[in-house]
Amino acid sequence: MKTYRRRLALTAMTVGVVGAVMFGGRMVERVSAVAKDTYDNIETFTDVLALVQKNYVDEVSTKQLIDGAITGMLSALDPHSAYLNPEMYKELQVDTRGTFGGLGIEITLRNGLLTVVSPIEDTPAFRAGVKAGDQIIKINDAFTKDMTLVDAVKRMRGPKGTTIHLTLHREGKPGLIQLTLTREVIRIQSVKFRTLEKGYGYVRITQFQEHTDDDLERGLKTLAKESGGRLSGLVLDLRNDPGGLLTQAVRVSDEFLDSGLIVYTDGRLESQKQKYFAHKQGSHIDFPMIVLVNGGTASASEIVAGALQDHKRALVLGEQTFGKGSVQTILPIDDNAALRLTTARYYTPSGRSIQALGITPDVVMPTVIPVAAGSERRFPMVREENLPGHLKGPAQPQQNGEENAPQEVEPPSPESDQPAAEGGDEISKDPQLHRALELLKSWNVFKTVVAQRQ
User: Fold this and answer.
1) How far from 321 is each of 151, 204, 238, 360, 395, CA to CA, in Å?
2) What is the CATH number of the domain that holds 128?
3) Are the beta carbons of 78 and 327 closer than 8 angstroms?
4) Do 120 and 15 belong to one domain?
C-alpha cells in the first residue's frame, strides 16, 4: 500500500514539474522541492495514523483520528481558525440567529479553565448571580477539567424547563458556589435602546447578528419620536460587544455615515480584498455621537468604532479595545462540517490595522471598581495580543511562541457592564455613560453659543 501511495504521489509531482518546465529551470527546482516536502509530511502522517490504529489501547476509528488531526492543524494557525464538526457548525448558525435553549452564559477557556465571559441579561444565569470571571468547576456531576467548549455548551444547553446544577469558583470568595438553574429559551436581544434625557438617546449593541441593522433602525426611529422628532445626541454603547457578522458591522456603520469607506479587507487572494462603502440614503448624520468602548469591544464592534472615529463622526470614549482585526470565513465541507479560517485582515478607512492593537479612544476613561472606601481593584484584562499564536499587528515583534502578559486594567463595573435603568441616579452610577451624556450636552451648548455669536 505504501509503495502504491508513493507512486501516486510521484506521478502527481511529475505533472507539477513538467508544467513548471515551461517557466524555466528555477521554477522546476522550487516546485519539485515544495512537492517533495508536502509528500514527505503526508507520508509521515499516514504512517502515524496506521501506527495509532494498530497499537492504541482501544480501537479508534479513522474518522476520529482525522477529525483530531484537522482540529490540531487549524489550531496551529491562530486562535480564531478552527475545525467545526457538525455540532459546532450547528452551534455557530444558532448563535448568529440569536435564539437557543439554555442558561445564557458566554464562556471561554482561560488557562485551561472553563471561565464565564459574561452572563447575558435577563437569563437564568444573570438572575442567579453568575458573574464574569467565574470558573465553572462542575456541570451537574461532570468536572470541567479538560472539557472542550463544545462539550460544555452541549451540556448546558437543553430543553426549556429542565434543570442543571453548576459548581462555580469565584475569586475572593471562600469555598465553592452551588447553583441550580432552570433552562429557558434564550433570545439574545442584539440592540437595546432608551432615552437618557429628552433629546438624548442611548443604544447598546450586545453583538452583531443577522438583523442587528433592522433592530437599530427601529430603535433610532423610536428614540427620535420620543425626542419630538429629532435627536440632539446619541450614545452608542459597544462595551463588551464581542463582535459577530462583518456585514452587520458595515450596515450599522452605514446608518451613521453618508459617504466614504467604512472598512476594507486584505488577504492573499483577490476575493479577500474587499472594500465596503457608506451610502447617503437612510443615514442618520444630524446629531453628535459618542461611542463607548472597553477591553471587551472586539472584532465587528471595533470596525464600527474605527469607522466612526476615522470619519470624525463620533467621539470614542473608554478603554483600549480588544484588538481582533482579522476576518474569518466559514468554508463548508462534507458531513455538515466546516472550517472557520482566518482569510484576511481588516483595516479602518484611514488604513489602520487593529490586529493585536485595538482602537485607542479619543477620551481615555478607565472604569474603576471600588472595593472599599479609598481603594480600588485592578484585574488582568486578556486581549488579542495575549492569545497564544495570534496574528501579529503591524508594529508587533515576533513572540517566539510566547504570549504577552495580560495588562493590568480595570474591567467594566457591574453598573456599566449592563445598560443602566432609566433615570439620572442610575446614569450617575455608570461614570463613562455619565461623562458621555455631559459631553453631548456641552457640545450642543457650545454650538448654540457659536451660532449666536455669528
Assistant:
1) 29, 16, 10, 7, 17
2) 2.30.42.10
3) no
4) no
For residues 336 and 210, membership in a common domain is answered with yes
Residue 238 CA to residue 366 CA, distance in Å, equals: 15
Each residue of 51-107: pLDDT tens digit? 999 999 999 999 999 989 998 999 889 988 988 888 778 777 766 666 677 898 878
> Residue 16: in which H helix or E strand, if any?
helix 2-21
Q: How far apart are CA 358 and CA 350, in angstroms?
A: 14
Same domain, 181 and 299: no
Whose CA is closest to 241, among 129, 321, 306?
321
Give the separation between CA 249 and CA 134, rounded to whole angstroms: 30
Q: Whole-angstrom Cα distance, residue 318 to residue 411?
A: 11
- Domain around 108: 99-187
Q: What is the CATH number of the domain that holds 289?
A: 3.90.226.10
Which sequence positions are flagged as catalytic? 299, 310, 324
Three-state SS at 232: coil
Residue type, 76: A
Q: Which spans in 227-271 are helix H?
A: 246-256
pLDDT digits (tens, 9 = 90+) for 235-264: 999 998 888 899 999 999 999 999 999 999
